[in-house]
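Review form for a predicted model. The reviewer records the input and the model, then writes brief findings.
Reviewer: anonymous (R2)
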Amino acid sequence: THPNAAQTGCEPDAACDASALSALAVPGLTPAFSPGVHRYRVPAPVGGGTWARATLCDGTKTLYVGGNQASSGARVGLWLGSGSATVAVYQRWTPVGTYTITVDPSLPPAPLTEGLASLSIPGLSPPFDPAVTHYTAPARPTSTVPVTAALASPGASTLWIESLLTGSGATRTTWAPLGNVVDVTVTEGWLEIGHYYVTIVR
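Model under review:
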């Protein structure tokens, strides 16, 4: 079994079928990835776009994600809208394996948990864990809080605190009255890969 497979996919398997993927990760992927399963569902992505990371079993094959050639194991943008998209394995010009990903509005929203290595706010609860997206922090007399966040890959991704571009590891003091929610977002190009929420409480 593969813990968190619905979010992260499985690790490459040396014995997998050469026409198959060895791993497929898409936020909210349902069911958990298995090389022999070719149809999957995902929650409706915000704005119609999400990301995918597909890994070939056979590196001599060619990978296409959403109709665009992609590198095996690389995270790429995937446009779904309200419909579907395919991930295809090609041998030269011939498709030898195809996986279909379809939007299912009945699925709960998928948490975006990639890209952030640390998050520090006075009184943050629970302690930061990249897999946890919702937190609380106590209100302060100034109605502001200092927020410090660090990226897992500073050269590859971008940090935003309350929609303001912020350097990895820098502290930004943000307006945070009681009941406010502080947004911390990580993007990679136009892709939103991490989104964390801190609700200010008594």
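Findings: The chain is about 0% helix and 50% strand.
Further findings: The radius of gyration is 19 Å.
Recommendation: see findings above.
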